[in-house]
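The data layer described in this paper is built around a simple, fixed record for each protein. We quote a single record here, exactly as it is kept in our systems:
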Amino acid sequence: MSNLLEQVIAISREVGQFLKYEQAKIRESEIEYKGRSNDMVSRADKEAEQRFVDFLSKLLPHSGFIAEEGTSTKVGKTDNWIIDPLDGTTNYLYGIPCYCTSVALQRNGELILGVIYDPTRDECFAAEKGKGATLNGTPIKVSAQTELEKSLIATGFPYDNRDRGKQYLDILLEINANTRGMRRLGSAALDMAYVACGRFEAFYEYGLNAWDVAAGAVIVREAGGNVSSFKNGADFIETQTIFCDNRLIHSGLLDFLKGW
């Protein structure tokens, strides 16, 4: 691993352990709502993001930030960190052990580094472009499953654009009927990490932002997987439609998403 990746892993572990320690201390009065009653943010989210920004600003002083809670809006000329300090906030606030930190580095518009850390399982997924992906330092690869009907698929439900909810559920039911089943964890970053290490064959969702998927995209690709939009393009951040898989069930699963 490069020194840069090692340092991002270190701060991710530090912030993740902070979140785990703070979880039981969060009070209802410290929870805010971003528009909808199911899109929550807590004191822990904000403090976790501030810790990332403070550390990463020193690590690469010229860098900018694309961060969910808006702690810093500085834009870098070449380097920008994309941060979700707490992916799975609802799980976190309800005591469900499925949440993580997610950090990616974008250089000249290209995603080159990603780290996802799950403090509840002490699992750190990391990757740097051209150097492979790891889980707690051990190399990982996507699943070798070639049959769609034997594949386990993950998805999520967006907070907005609910007018297309029925269409989304229809697609979900079709995929569920033609695979081994569906899972909905409530953390897009972990869904993608699980594709990277072979626990899921694929993951798809719409309505996600850059900080939800950037780190996962690097890790999935470096683990040998595919990352694209529902239309099989590279514009998954711009279109807010993310599809990732092990490449071996790619065309069969994308067929279900063509009409989106």
Observations:
- Residues 150 and 180 are 5 Å apart (CA to CA).
- DSSP finds eight helices and 14 strands in the chain.
